Amino acid sequence: MELQDGLSPVVDSGDDILVPMDDVREHLVVVGNGMAGCRAVEELLARDSVRYRVTIFGAEPHVNYNRIMLSPVLAGEKTFEDIIINDRAWYDDNGITLITSDPVTAIDRAAKTVTSQSGRTIGYDKLLIATGSDPFIIPVPGKDLPGVISFRDMKDVDSMLAAAEAGKSVGGGEAVVIGGGLLGLEAAHGLTLRGMKVTVLHIMPTLMERQLDEAAAWLLKNALEGRGQTILTGADTAEIYGEGKVEGVRLKDGTQIPASLVVMAVGIRPSVALAREAGLDVGRGIKVDDHMVTSDADVLAVGECVEHDGNVYGLVAPLWDMCRSLADGLTDRHTGYKGSVTSTKLKVAGLDVFSAGDFSGGEGCEDIVLRDASRGVYKRVVVKDDKIVGAVLYGDTADGGWYFDLLKRGENVSDIRDLLIFGQAFAQGGGALDPKAAVAALSDDAEICGCNGVSKGQVVACIEKGACSLDAVRAGCKASASCGSCTGLVENILSVVLGDDVQSGPKTMCKCTSFGHDDVRREIVAQDMRSIPEVMQKLHWSTPDGCSSCRPALNYYLLCALPGVYVDDQQSRFVNERMHANIQKDGTYSVVPRMWGGLTNPRELRAIADVVEKYDAPMVKVTGGQRLDIFGIKKEDLPAVWADLNAAGMVSGHAYGKSLRTVKTCVGSEWCRFGTQDSTGLGVKTERMTWGSWMPHKFKIAVSGCPRNCAEATIKDFGVVCVDSGYELHVGGNGGIHVRVTDLLCKVSTEQEALDYCAAFTQLYREEARYLERTAPWIERVGVDYVKQRIVEDDAGREALRARFLYSQSFSQDDPWAERAAGANTELHQHLDPISIAAE
Amino acid sequence: MTDWIDIGTLADIPQRGARTVQIGDEKEIAVFRTGDDQIFALVNECPHKKGPLSQGIVHGHSVACPLHNWNIALKTGEAQGEDKGCTPTIAVKQEDGRILIARPELAKVAA
């Protein structure tokens, strides 16, 4: 054997297997490249990515694909590429040797080797049998004729597509599907869509008798017949006839049905021949223990080919449970498989069907049934001893997960029995009829994805870790990654967790756009956009004029990018910023004049007192930011109030804005026996520099005169703590819901430096934080080291930021109150003429 | 008796904004002008906590209440999304640049 550099671990049929000679790891050989085998390897790699060297044998020529999704491929809804689970890169990246088109034909347990059809013999330390199941072929004459196929793999789909193609020249062609279970009906549906005339033969009296009761099966049969299929129940096949190829099927009652294609879909049997020949203990399936170990300690088995505790499973959810237990066992964890309770939520030929538990009825069982004929809905819940023991839903399966959750938890349903059948929204009250509320009401351990056994709690955790799209959730926790029937649920959980709130929707700005905040900001600058309509046009907004989330954000981004150029859009301002006052719950406003650094004087206090009396303000309150708040002012009185306050030298305090609010100070060295610097004076200077600036969110500053920190500077967006040797600068504090103490930015020695750093930091926040993001979460997001690097370490950068801030400020320090008092925007304050409704 | 009352011109109302009209001593009607210059009139109260809808952000044919950001459809007065509630609407029409409001409906909401 020749060793090569860049050895490719993927080996196609016929090549020699090249093994790096220095790889001394235990060798895990997997027989079967299907869903169970590959999932077992995935689970193993997730626990320990290096312990085993892995070789996978597959009988098919493909990489691992999602067998459940063959139906949509047949129906033309998906391509083969769409249903690949693991592409070549996955095998390469994980160092897995994949041998395709070469089934294993023998196991020598004594020598610990496997031999394949092509004659390869390779050794193993651990062997995993994941051969799945074989389609059951009923032993009738003609079963081996060309044109008789099963519905199990991609090759079968290709055969069906070829038959449909050939049938086109004769007006569609005719097909018979033997088997009226899920698989058969899916095959029939696909073939019907492909233009063939399809007859379904089912030996039992009703379709899908294992999943559906008689009533639901009847509805299903009617619906399928409505689509042009012929459904024959109680139909017992006598023979498949034809000369050299299929020509038709004859039933025992003599009926002959011509067909050029016969699909046998009567059931599957665990594929156990290989294991049996190897002398392993085999019942209906290969017998395994709770860690999927067979009667030979070095041979494991997983999936549809196994029998665990007397049970054989044909659904995908139990396979995933098995794979987890198997991987735990292989990595010395001891959890163990305990069997699975299964539910079936399916789309059969596009029709929603759900069943769970036991619905055969019997002693002590009560049925609760809802039928809505016009909608084609049937629901049946079976209750025994006040607990749900079974459920069948047809046409509307939205509550399937909820019933299954109640069933598995053995919940006592006597309290909600009367409303049970109407579903979760009704039974749990609140009139919460929309699906989001229903999802929000599910318990954390409610199962969302039956295929992959993913609970709501796991989906939520995945989203909270940053998965904010369906694809990301699929990649992160596998929910909705198999059959996809829970996609709607997952989408609802996404929207319940993330909402369309601009703060928490980390990816897109709001539902009007597919761009995130940072993308929009970057494009505004890059494309030199100058107005909100221009941004919406160029970035393909999906709404005519945005929403109450994106418009204020865009207005701010443009304002920040284009100081002195951009004309503020009043209608994209929240009410408080448009009215320059704070709206209160009764629709009146409160007014806070600025008091620089918390200082005031008799003239200002007299003016405030006069306003309170003149406009009959019911309350005046000292704010946390060291100023006075006058409550209960009507919108039409605001301009006059402002005129009076302006006359005493006061300007807007911007207590209402995403803007600089106040600079809180202590008295400092001028009066305080502990004061180290003139904190009041520095506070006033800081406020004079920063007032009037619009920000992503409100911004508070404080200056404390000594480390006793009476101005609480360490819970402000920017805080200065004076010390004997200078000024400590702190950033990113917050005293709100989530109290956050500031990070120390640096220490400077002069007042001017403190002001310069403040300006630079403020501008960095203005330019880079997302709208409605306070400094605290912004710093948590970008890291204080990044802020230090920009403000402390980069002298030229800091100076440029400071210069940009001061330039921007040169346009923003006009008192908005004075403009309004002088008559600007009167329409915002005045009513239209009052009207009388009395007859004229 | 006329069934339509003239309340002003389109230009009296800011685009994507609203003005208010007082009827009687208590009630206020909010008259909205959307981005596409359509006019809608609603009682100036959010169904949630009676916030003054006239002060909200107008987007599309909806307004976001200034108090708690409920979105109200201007045409029907219905709360959108998961919120439930409805604000009474009053028929309005535009004729020759004037905005006219329906007196009988006004009488109904004022009662």
Automatic annotation (TrEMBL), chain A:
One Pfam family here: Pyr_redox_2
Residue stretches making up the BFD-like [2Fe-2S]-binding domain: 448-494, 509-558
Cofactor requirement: FAD; siroheme; [4Fe-4S] cluster; [2Fe-2S] cluster
Gene Ontology BP, a term: nitrate assimilation
Biochemical pathway: Nitrogen metabolism; nitrate reduction (assimilation)
Entry keywords, A to Z: 2Fe-2S, 4Fe-4S, FAD, Flavoprotein, Heme, Iron, Iron-sulfur, Metal-binding, Nitrate assimilation, Oxidoreductase
Residue stretches making up the Nitrite/Sulfite reductase ferredoxin-like domain: 584-648
Cofactor binding, note field: Binds 1 siroheme per subunit. Binds 1 [4Fe-4S] cluster per subunit.
Residues covered by the NADH-rubredoxin oxidoreductase C-terminal domain: 343-410
All copies of domain FAD/NAD(P)-binding, residue ranges: 27-306
GO molecular function annotations of the record: 2 iron, 2 sulfur cluster binding; 4 iron, 4 sulfur cluster binding; flavin adenine dinucleotide binding; heme binding; metal ion binding; NADP binding; nitrite reductase [NAD(P)H] activity
Family: Belongs to the nitrite and sulfite reductase 4Fe-4S domain family.
NCBIfam families: nitri_red_nirB
Protein name (Swiss-Prot/TrEMBL): Nitrite reductase [NAD(P)H] large subunit
Organism of provenance: Sphingobium indicum BiD32
Higher taxonomy: Bacteria, Pseudomonadati, Pseudomonadota, Alphaproteobacteria, Sphingomonadales
UniProtKB/TrEMBL annotation, chain B:
Enzyme class: oxidoreductase
UniProt keyword Iron, yes or no: yes
Coiled-coil stretches: none
Domain Rieske positions: 5-101
InterPro entries named among the record's database cross-references: Rieske-like_NirD, Rieske_2Fe-2S, Rieske_2Fe-2S_sf
Transmembrane segments: none
Keywords annotated in UniProt: 2Fe-2S, Iron, Iron-sulfur, Metal-binding, Nitrate assimilation, Oxidoreductase
NCBIfam families: nirD_assim_sml
PANTHER family the record matches: 3-PHENYLPROPIONATE_CINNAMIC ACID DIOXYGENASE FERREDOXIN SUBUNIT, FERREDOXIN-RELATED
Official protein name in the record: Nitrite reductase [NAD(P)H] small subunit
Organism name: Sphingobium indicum BiD32
